[in-house]
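Hi R.,

Here's the chain you asked about this morning:
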Amino acid sequence: MLLPQILYEDNHLIAVNKRVSDIVQGDKTGDISLDEIVKGYLKKKYHKPGDVFLGVIHRLDRPVSGVILFARTSKALSRMNEQFKSRETGKIYWAVVQNRPPEEEGHLVHYILRDRDKNKSFAYNRERTGTKKAELIYRIAGRSRKYWFLEIRLLTGRHHQIRAQLAAIGCPVRGDLKYGYPRSDPGGGIHLHARELHFFHPVGRREIKLIAEPPNDALWQAFLEMYA
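And here is the predicted structure, written out as tokens:
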């Protein structure tokens, strides 16, 4: 399997532009995972004789594309985990929806309940037993004849958060059958893309901003033209 586009690489970190349908870490499906693909790339490039260390810092849902960051050392993994936990990182997503959101810009606050058996999250307007607070900020970045293009700044990192919160306001992501969109996208993906990741390097603390191009299809290309 080919390695997705590399966005950044040094002795401590490596980032790639995850493709739709790539799974970040192995699961019960047994499909080859992105972390194993990256390990294979590093092993070959640097002629590593033994096992290659690669730490999974964060994840993206399988049907989602975009920036994914891995740690190449245990020190980098520990420090990056702390950054994500303390919300020092910044995440910007792009989404395509068919229904217009209620406002040009909005701050969504919900309480997310994860159902592990269904691998699905439910967004409620009020706190319930077992829920976790979820926040994001969106703005309408453009529109086509049939769709609205959203830029989303993620403030918390809950399971399926963007998908569940947009569905809760009547704007499921294009292709996301699980969250109420009527039709699936070809290839099993959805039109949700992790566009940017901002963080501080774990060694030296310089600020880094990574940008991932969306998949090459007509809707994403229209979004790019509007966004430019």
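One quick note: The helical segments are 34-45, 74-85, 161-168, 218-227.

Cheers,
M.
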